[in-house]
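Per-residue structure
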Amino acid sequence: CPRCPSCRRPMQVDFDASEGCLRFSCAASPREAQQDDWRRRVCSQARPLQIRLLRQHGEECAAVSAAWASDAAVEPSSGSASSSTAEAHGGDREAAAADRGACATGVSGNDASCAAAPPPRPPPKCICGSHLTRRSMHSRVLTFVCEGAPVLPSRSQLKVLIDNPPIVCDVCAQPVRTQNVWTCENGRRTVLHAAAYDVCESCFAEHAFGDMGGDNEDMTSQRSDEEEDDDDDDRPSSNESEWGWGAWG
């Protein structure tokens, strides 16, 4: 159980959802402190905040997409106008065609007349203040084993863990059985989620984009932004190679 660093008295830990921070108080008795499942309680108390953060993320993504769509609708007309002006003044149809081609390939010197690339989506926030990243379940299980196992499992045991991941969504409290999962970059390096923090794709889609089925265009765009990170996550780390886990693909 948590203890005061000065007097070593057992402490009770709670999460203040209104302030978004932990609150510490003296436990009623050492016995109650020993029986207190404070990690589960804190996770339950923080759940409403994580749902609000996911909704906020969906709103931010929608705003970014709407702003980009508005700019993209204006910029082609401006590029067309500049091409028409070039044709009217110089009769140089080849120059006008080159200008349009440059805009299509993104190599024009006049950036204002070319359609901008879609902006990156803002990363979703975690209750601890860090960010959630989308990782493959294979990579997440390896991280789980490296952080929590006192003894490294055998290959057969590792295969069982990969086939039946011991990862539970901290929003719906259900086992995650999808190929990918959203997990906090902080891992276990915070008291707020001392056993890491994971959000399944169904909860992510539902609370961020209002999609009960887990398939949303905005979410798909966000996933595509993370694909490169996923590829990096799946590459064996030095520890994985050292333990012979790099062969698992």
The longest strand covers residues 11-16. Residues 38-90 form the longest helix (53 residues). DSSP finds eight helices and five strands in the chain. Residues 78-115, 214-249 have pLDDT under 50 and may be disordered.
